[in-house]
Amino acid sequence: MYKTLMIPALIIFVILISGCSTSDIFITEKDELLFTEIRALYEEIDERKWEDAKSKMTNIEKIFEQRKWKLFMLGQLSQIHDIELEFELLIENINEEDDSESKLGIKKIKRQLYSIYNL
């Protein structure tokens, strides 16, 4: 009896200490597209391609809206709200062609998304 209980507990323990990331479980190909587009937006801003950055931002917002249901399941309402506010600020910064504030906004969005997916 003791051995039969010990084996599943040992398996769970090994899985937990092996360092498996929950982001590997929860991030799908569609979610990865969001991160890819955000990285591409950062590059557009870095190269000061403001018109391309504006269109990229529109695309990111569409992808975010499509993935929002999953974010609600994984994260807290306040986290999703913070990301939406950062999107609004980022749009303003892109319209003003402020590269440093835009890059900072992108980093904040990425951090929030990673914190949601990594639980």
How would you characterize the overall build of this protein?
With 119 residues, this protein is an all-alpha fold. The protein has a domain at 58-119. The protein has helices spanning 2-17, 22-26, 29-46, 50-74, 77-95, 99-117. Helix 3 (29-46) runs antiparallel to helix 4 (50-74), helix 3 (29-46) runs antiparallel to helix 6 (99-117) and helix 4 (50-74) runs antiparallel to helix 5 (77-95). The longest helix is centred in the middle third of the chain and has 25 residues, at 50-74. The two termini are 35 Å apart. 18% of the residues are buried. The mean pLDDT is 85. This is DUF4363 family protein.
Note the total helix count: 6
**Class from secondary-structure proportions:** mainly alpha
Radius of gyration: 19 Å
Profile the largest sheet: none
The ordered string of helix (H) and strand (E) elements is: HHHHHH
Q: Average the pLDDT over all residues and give the rounded result.
A: 85
| Fraction of helical residues | over 70%
Strand content: under 5%
The number of strands is 0
End-to-end separation: 35 Å
Shape: elongated
Residue ranges: pLDDT <50 for 5 or more in a row? Answer: none
Q: What descriptive keywords fit this protein?
A:
mainly alpha; DUF4363 family protein; single chain; 119 residues; 6 helices
